[in-house]
């Protein structure tokens, strides 16, 4: 048997129909912040080259991208709220499509995980005035997170509208769809979990109330485009950005069941396997969520090709997202198909400016 023949029959490498998109394989490139955009958040030629190199993925999900000026909070992160942003992203989508790929834009508001240094001195907004433990790497240096300003009820529809406007701009920029970032301790996640949401109005208290913001954003984004062009990412047991919830199965079971009724492109669960740096101490609930979410499910967090294939074979997911393996291996799908060894990521250059550790990882020889 020729090397790679077994992998050619693997579920991970089989096609998959994702709504209107025909994916050539089930390997998704996970969203990863890389910090190479311009100072105003405009994507550039270097970013177009980076994403083009990885167009062999069944689907690329871009790095998190700010939906508004008030949602910014990471040095070198891109935006999608100005004409310049649209033009910059258009060169990225063109490059990926020319290489035969498919690409979704991840929509992001950092909420309390931002800092006044990014916001012209204004406090970041959040569901409640509860600070996260940890630090922000601001334009003026590393500083502790501040106590955010609790959003007024009247402000919520404005931010919901920012997500919808960003989705419309993503469509204008040539993306194949968008992913709503509801994970990892950013604004939507802050509303959803009771460790950060202490509100007493219609957006706090009960699980249904805490999920309201997530669902209003998702419905608005679907209205700005189409449900089958919209995915949602959640992190049910994640602890990144000082997140917690008293009952993840109940909270995220409700969210998954509600999202299932919207006819989305997919639900994407960032719930790492044990031993992953972002894994929490609770047992993973992705298998339970699989039972209540009726659409396409993507799982992510520490999977290699063998573990991912086994998970798909067991029916735990339809697609598997890979982060670091795609970062260090632009031709990850080809390497997986051939059973070739993988490059190791260089952690020292994850967020440094320039091409090093970004577009200089080697591919296999032709």
Tags for this model:
single chain, 366 residues, alpha/beta, 8-stranded parallel barrel, two-stranded antiparallel sheet, 12 helices
End-to-end separation: 21 Å
Listing every helix as H and every strand as E from the N terminus to the C terminus, the arrangement reads HEEEHEHEEEEEHEHHHEHEHEHEHH
Major beta sheet, strand line-up: 3-4-5-10-11-12-13-14
Helical fraction equals 25-40%
State mean pLDDT (0 to 100 scale): 95
Radius of gyration: 19 Å
Low-confidence stretches: 1-9
Tally of extended strands? 14
Strand portion, in percent? 15-25%
Apparent shape? globular
Number of helices: 12
Largest sheet: 8 strands, parallel, barrel
The structure class reads: alpha/beta
Task: Provide a short characterization of the protein structure.
With 366 residues, the chain is α/β, with parallel strands linked by helices. It has helices at residues 5-8, 45-53, 83-98, 156-172, 187-192, 207-210, 212-224, 248-260, 286-292, 305-313, 324-328, 332-338; strands spanning 16-18, 21-23, 27-29, 59-66, 103-108, 125-126, 135-138, 141-144, 149-150, 177-182, 230-234, 266-270, 297-300, 319-322.
């Amino acid at each position: 048997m020729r090397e790679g023949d077994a992998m050619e029959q693997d579920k991970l490498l089989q096609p998959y129909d994702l709504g209107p998109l025909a994916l050539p394989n089930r390997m998704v490139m996970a969203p990863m912040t890389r910090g190479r955009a311009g100072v105003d958040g405009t994507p550039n030629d270097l970013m177009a080259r980076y994403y083009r190199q990885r167009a062999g993925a069944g689907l690329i999900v871009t790095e998190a991208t700010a939906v508004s000026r008030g949602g910014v909070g990471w040095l070198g992160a891109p935006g999608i709220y100005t004409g310049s942003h649209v033009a910059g992203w258009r060169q990225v989508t063109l490059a990926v499509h020319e290489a035969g790929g498919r690409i979704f834009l991840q929509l992001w508001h950092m909420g309390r995980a931002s800092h006044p240094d990014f916001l012209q001195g204004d406090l970041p907004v959040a569901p409640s005035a509860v600070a996260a433990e940890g630090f922000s790497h601001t334009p003026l240096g590393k500083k502790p997170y501040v106590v955010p300003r609790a959003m007024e009820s009247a402000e919520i529809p404005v931010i919901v509208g920012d997500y919808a406007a960003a989705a419309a701009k993503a469509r204008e920029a040539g993306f194949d769809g968008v992913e709503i970032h509801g994970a990892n301790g950013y604004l939507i996640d802050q509303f959803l979990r009771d460790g950060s949401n202490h509100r007493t109005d219609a957006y706090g208290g009960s699980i249904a109330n805490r999920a309201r913001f997530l669902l209003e954003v998702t419905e608005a984004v679907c209205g700005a485009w189409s449900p089958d062009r919209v995915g949602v990412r959640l992190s049910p047991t994640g602890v990144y950005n000082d997140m917690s919830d008293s009952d993840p199965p109940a909270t995220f079971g409700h969210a998954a069941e509600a999202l299932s009724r919207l006819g989305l492109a997919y639900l994407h669960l960032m719930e790492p396997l044990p031993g992953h740096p972002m894994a929490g101490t609770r047992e993973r609930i992705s298998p339970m969520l699989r039972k209540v979410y009726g659409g396409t499910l993507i799982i992510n967090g520490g999977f290699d090709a063998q573990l991912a294939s086994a998970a798909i074979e067991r029916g735990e997911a339809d697609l598997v997202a890979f982060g670091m393996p795609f970062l260090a291996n632009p031709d990850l799908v080809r390497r997986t198909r051939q059973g070739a060894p993988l490059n190791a990521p260089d952690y020292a250059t994850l967020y440094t400016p320039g091409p090093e550790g970004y577009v200089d990882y080697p591919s296999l020889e032709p």
